[in-house]
Task: inverse folding
């Protein structure tokens, strides 16, 4: 277990850990933004937007993340879009997760009692106001559970970025394995890091849940 | 489903609103078409739609590779799906056990494997236990992770079965195991089947991680086709990505359609028997 | 929902027909070999070869074929032409020739070889796990690896070099790499060498991915052994060039199980014999030599 504190391994591990955290946090933000927009598309009165949302979600949810990384990392440069591999990874992860966020939000919208939206409309609110001010805030409570699984899955999924030139924890695992350290010792520290991250995400969601529960 | 929500969130459009929606619709169609055209045009400009880029797919030997890759993907998926359902049922039973130590162990296993990235597990398994068999490293990794997730799905399904069901079974003198496996689990599986199949879609997609430990599945075949076809405009990563995406999306949609079909059938059956809405 | 199901069905049909329909067979390979191009040598397959005490050899004899690990994505070095099927004829390159000449001296003809593609990061695993009998594929001999596997050879000394786009004048050698982005492959020795020069390192799973990144301008240079880079430069002579100042020495060896000294000596003998009778030079000229690089000196074997 002592391998972490030899030969600058700790610096490598810390750098990998921070990249994983940063990558997860940024793509979570992107996923939340795009996912909400997509959910709005999917319940909007404009058929073209609904169709767009449906196609988007079906394509991104059913494509393996690895393939999406290929598409982003090797496709976008062909469109003359040049970013660092970190930004590419944020895009791939964010777009992928957005489709899951969208589905969670949409099913959450369905759980808000009909009367709420009807009351909002009878007050003269339009679609945007009804969705943004009345329905989504209430949906937020019921979606916290499924949403937390989506965001606990995100740091796990971010490991794929290691195969696409982002020096996060999977890349740390590869490097340490190359250097010939014991596989189990490496795995122990990685497991600790990922458990820590997922626990923090779970606790954050628990706190959020408590707050929203009081507000009810 | 979307029809019912859409009527809730906005009024039935009058003539002005209809005109506005049409204008919006037209604008968004134009916008989307423009984006697609831009993507197509830049890709074509970068020589991605030249014959040379798509040429490899014409050869029977290359097609054979893709079919072999597909079969390997399906093998890994089949094994992992079967094992993960068994593991899931066992872990769910463990989590629902009356014995505290059993519950604690099952909970720990489920929480651990749900938090670990599949890729990290597969990589570690391949470099320690299954050094000669990427297939089994992949299947084991997939089983551990998806088994933990399936356990949670089955458990929440069991918890959602009305309490009266279990109580009635106990009243008939059934034992704990009997109640669990003859009364609760069948009903739980029935109600959770769409979610279970949804997780199987995840399992199918995750088999693609096998290419990183050189398991020759579909994505591996695709990567090899791309890297071994050199054209003046570079390597055909985009054509390969397009072909691979179509295959994966097709397979996943087929599985999802199955889940939808079962869900619809289940709902019909439930409605026949009970009139009480959940 | 009905429509969605139809779409799904239609998509799978499209996917299947795309795979099953109309197939050309044979190879499109633009055989650069013109009329006067050098020809590959053929190797006399020995009979009645006996190697007492070699586990890998005994097993190969029993199953009737050798299993050789190689690279599949390095043009002119270790390459597999996918459109030509998965048979022996699909493999080509200098490393493949070395593997074949050794196999011939062990008593196995080209049709008794089963090729297995093994990427850099998995080589030690594949050898020590017994997946392959020996490995020929840009495998640098170094003390770290000698602790896990053993090496026959070296049969070629390459050196780490840089592949840049043809019009690049900034990069003249490793010293001009400061803050440039340089691409290389996971699990190769190139990473540690290049980080010293202050380059920003990008890592992918295959060299072709790096070359693709170089052609789209995502990276400034690709670094690895000159032998590999020359193959890519020869494939894209209008766009890419090798800088030509190797800054390391990479002796390539044939990798095999750590404790199999009998097989190691036999492979060393085979290499020596083919180096002396001119097969080595002919094989080089017909593969890596096509890129215009003159054959380097044959390195002395390192028997241990």
Result:
């Amino acid at each position: 277990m002592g391998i972490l504190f030899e030969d600058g391994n700790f610096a490598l591990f810390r750098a990998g850990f921070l990249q994983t955290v940063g990558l997860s946090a940024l793509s979570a933000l992107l996923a939340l933004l795009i996912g909400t927009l997509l959910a709005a598309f999917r319940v909007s009165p404009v058929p073209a937007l609904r169709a767009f949302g449906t196609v988007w979600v079906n394509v991104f949810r059913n494509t393996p993340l690895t393939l999406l990384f290929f598409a982003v990392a090797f496709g976008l440069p062909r469109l003359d879009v040049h970013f660092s591999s970190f930004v590419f990874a944020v895009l791939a992860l964010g777009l992928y997760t957005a489709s899951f966020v969208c589905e969670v939000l949409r099913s959450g919208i369905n759980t808000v009692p009909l009367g709420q939206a009807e009351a909002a409309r009878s007050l003269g609110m339009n679609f945007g106001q009804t969705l943004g001010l009345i329905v989504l805030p209430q949906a937020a409570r019921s979606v916290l559970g499924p949403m937390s699984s989506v965001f606990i899955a995100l740091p796990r999924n971010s490991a794929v970025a290691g195969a696409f030139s982002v020096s996060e924890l999977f890349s740390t695992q590869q490097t340490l394995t190359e250097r010939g350290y014991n596989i189990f010792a490496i795995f122990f520290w990685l497991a600790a890091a990922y458990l820590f991250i997922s626990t923090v995400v779970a606790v954050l969601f628990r706190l959020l849940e408590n707050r929203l529960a009081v507000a009810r | 489903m979307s029809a019912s929500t859409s009527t809730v969130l906005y009024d039935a459009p009058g003539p002005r609103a209809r005109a506005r929606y049409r204008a919006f619709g037209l604008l968004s169609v134009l916008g989307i078409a423009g984006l697609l055209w831009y993507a197509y045009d830049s890709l074509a400009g970068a020589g991605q739609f030249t014959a040379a880029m798509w040429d490899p797919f014409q050869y029977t030997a290359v097609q054979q590779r893709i079919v072999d890759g597909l079969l390997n993907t399906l093998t890994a998926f089949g094994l992992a799906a079967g094992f993960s359902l068994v593991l899931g049922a066992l872990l769910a039973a463990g989590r629902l056990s009356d014995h505290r130590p059993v519950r604690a162990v099952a909970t720990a296993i489920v929480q651990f494997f749900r938090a670990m990235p599949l890729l990290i597990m597969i990589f570690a398994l391949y470099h320690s236990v299954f050094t000669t068999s990427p297939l089994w490293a992949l299947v084991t990794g997939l089983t551990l992770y998806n088994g933990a997730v399936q356990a949670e799905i089955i458990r929440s399904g069991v918890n959602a079965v009305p309490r009266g069901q279990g109580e009635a079974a106990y009243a008939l003198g059934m034992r704990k195991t009997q109640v669990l496996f003859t009364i609760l689990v069948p009903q739980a599986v029935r109600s959770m089947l769409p979610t279970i199949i949804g997780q199987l879609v995840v399992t199918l997609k995750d088999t693609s991680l096998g290419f990183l430990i050189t398991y020759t599945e579909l994505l591996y075949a695709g990567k090899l086709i791309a890297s071994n076809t050199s054209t003046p405009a570079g390597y055909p990563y985009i054509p390969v990505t397009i072909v691979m995406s179509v295959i994966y999306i097709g397979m996943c949609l087929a599985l999802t359609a199955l889940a939808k079909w079962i869900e619809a059938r289940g709902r019909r059956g439930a409605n026949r028997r009970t009139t009480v809405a959940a | 929902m009905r429509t969605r199901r139809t779409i799904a069905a239609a998509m799978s049909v499209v996917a299947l027909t795309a795979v099953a329909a109309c197939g050309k067979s044979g190879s499109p390979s633009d055989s650069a070999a013109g009329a006067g191009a050098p020809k590959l040598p053929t190797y006399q397959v020995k009979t009645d070869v006996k190697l007492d005490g070699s586990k890998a050899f005994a097993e190969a004899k029993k199953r009737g074929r050798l299993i050789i690990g190689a690279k599949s994505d390095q043009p002119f070095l270790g390459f597999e032409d996918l459109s030509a099927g998965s048979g022996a004829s699909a493999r080509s390159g200098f490393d493949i020739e070395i593997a074949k000449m050794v196999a011939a001296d062990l008593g196995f003809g080209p049709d008794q070889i089963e090729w297995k593609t093994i990427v850099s990061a998995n080589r030690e695993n594949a050898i020590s796990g017994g997946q392959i009998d020996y490995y020929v594929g840009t495998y640098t001999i170094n003390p770290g690896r000698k602790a896990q596997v053993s090496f026959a050879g070296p049969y070629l000394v390459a050196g780490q070099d840089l592949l840049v786009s043809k019009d690049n004048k900034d990069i003249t050698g490793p010293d001009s790499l400061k803050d440039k982005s340089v691409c290389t492959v996971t699990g190769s020795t190139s990473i540690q060498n290049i980080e010293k020069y202050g380059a920003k390192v990008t890592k992918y799973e295959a060299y072709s991915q790096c070359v693709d990144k170089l052609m789209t301008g995502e990276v400034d240079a690709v670094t690895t052994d000159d032998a590999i880079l020359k193959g890519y430069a020869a494939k894209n002579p209008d766009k890419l060039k090798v800088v030509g100042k190797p800054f390391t020495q990479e002796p390539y060896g044939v990798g095999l199980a750590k404790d199999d000294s009998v097989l190691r000596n036999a492979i060393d003998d085979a290499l020596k014999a083919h180096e002396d009778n001119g097969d080595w030079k002919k094989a080089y000229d017909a593969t890596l030599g096509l890129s215009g690089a003159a054959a380097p000196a044959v390195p002395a074997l390192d028997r241990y």
About this structure: DSSP finds eleven helices and no strands in chain B. Chain B touches chain A through 56 residues (CB under 8 Å).
